[in-house]
Amino acid sequence: MKKILFGITSLGLGGAERVLVDIVNKLSDEYDITIFTIYGKGELEKQLTKKVKVKSLYAKSYSELSTFQKYFSVPLKILLQKQMIYQKKIKGDYEIEIAFLEGPITRLLSTKNKNTRKFVWVHNDISLVFGKGIKANIKKQIDKKVYQKYEKIVFVSQDNKRKFKQIYPNLKNEQLVIYNYIDKEKVLKKAKQEPIECFDKNCICLVTVARLVQQKAIDRLIRVHKKLLEENLQHKVYVIGDGPLKAKLEQEIQEKGIKSSFELLGKKENPYPYIQNADYFCLLSYFEGYGMVLEEAKILGKSIIITDTAAREAVENYKNSIILANDENAIYEGLKEVIQKKEKNINNEKEETYDNDEIIEKIKDVIEKNKEK
Q1: Calculated CA dihedral for residues 287, 161, 323, 132, nearest 10 degrees
Q2: Is 4 helix (H, G, I), strand (E, B) or coil?
Q3: Is residue 96 within 8 Å of residue 36, measured between CB atoms?
Q4: Residue 328 CA to chain centroid, in angstroms?
Q5: Are the CB atoms for 51 and 28 separated by under 8 Å?
Q6: More confident residue, 175 or 139
Q7: Nearest to 240 by CA among 221, 215, 265
Q8: Which of 125, 189, 293, 313 has the largest count of CB atoms under 10 Å?
């Protein structure tokens, strides 16, 4: 049985993390799989089949680390001591090592091992994910050398591949697109597990699932929400997720006096009942990879509103969706029209005919295909 190691920052509550759990659970009957995480105690670890092994660089979860550790000492240690960390914590008799997320784990698994083939997944718009300025430029230059060390680069959207090639136009490794795998039956089952009591049945309810980081533009949504309320366009927004901007966003909500209509619900191991019971699912980010949560919303037959990012690929053949220009005024005008119409989503779309098996076959093909001489 072929031994494969997948690497990811953690198995916390995130989109790429949920995708990885579904992939390895599906593959675990055919491969001997280990997941290596930088941070331990991820909420999704308990969803892994017993056949999948997990080991971590740090036993602590990301949230348990100090601010200094999160933003400086740990990333710097991985950058400067990756050879030592790899030799002590990772190196084994794996035939394939797959870095499943951009950033520190991709740098760490790029460490040379002549007995192991190296693949990497890219889930985001690499031109934007590191921000701007000197620090971002340094990371881009470091990662140019890092990505050169991987035999194959797998992107989760065509847009991500295109943006990557703009930043790194001369890389010679094999590059291909495989959309995210989702366990449809798990989504449908978990959507029925928990009753939702917080939603207001008297007005339109919008739900988003997002890490509370700048990319997800929750601050922009707060401003749009406040402006709509000032025009007496009643609606409520529920945000599922946690992250470093939580305190700042809570302060903005408090200052604008919208606590009763804009709620940060925090982490939810099972977000599906919330998506199921919303009138619209929204993903109004500044930029996206593919937006795995959109596939989940489609499985649940929800009306979807997104900004024009790489996530458009997820809804281009889904008729119950709206794509808004990626600026504050366009989001305001788009949500205004939705609220004025007062069209409550009654799930008349239901779940799509949804089959991910071909994606698993593509992943197996990547794993099994021999390197071309």
Answers
A1: 20
A2: strand
A3: no
A4: 23
A5: yes
A6: 175
A7: 265
A8: 293
